[in-house]
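Re: weekly structure request thread

Next one in the queue (186 aa):
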Amino acid sequence: MRSLVIFFISTIPLVSSSQGVFSNTTSAVLQSVISDYSNRFRNIKGETISNDPQSTDYASKVQIPGSVNAIITKYNSDSKKEIYSWKCLLLESDDFVLVSRRYKELHNQIRNSIVKIEGEKPFIINGAYEIPDEEKKFTTSSFYLLPATGEMKKIKIELTMEFYVTEWKVALLVYDQQQETTLTLK
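Done, posted below.
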């Protein structure tokens, strides 16, 4: 029998176990987002936050506990296919060491998480860790689903760490990997 230990670091609940899964509520949020990916996040899309010629931002009805915010963005394009992304700003701080440590912890929690979507076989989230570098100002660790079938082959999950003017921000993003639009944190 595996033991499960929950750590609370700042406001982000983390879980340590032999499979590296999130706490139940965080895993449930990520599972909700991934499950609604093929619906273009229709079931988790809330009120319109902003609208401009290039994109429309909506509040997300689901957000990882302790995070700053979660936003769904619809990108306006000439193609007939609607392009959406979900991003959750997990933390902000001016302390590089603190943020990079949490970034690694979050990566370890996401990697090997199991996602169960109704009507599908369970997926495992897998991906490589990229080491943050204070001089680089941007780090991203990309994840994918195993085994990816059908539309789920297109899903992209990223954990990013980026420096904005005076502070570091860590975010989790879910979007269509064929999307050519550069995603930025808002």
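Residues 1-22, 179-185 have pLDDT under 50 and may be disordered. DSSP finds two helices and eleven strands in the chain.
Next request, please.
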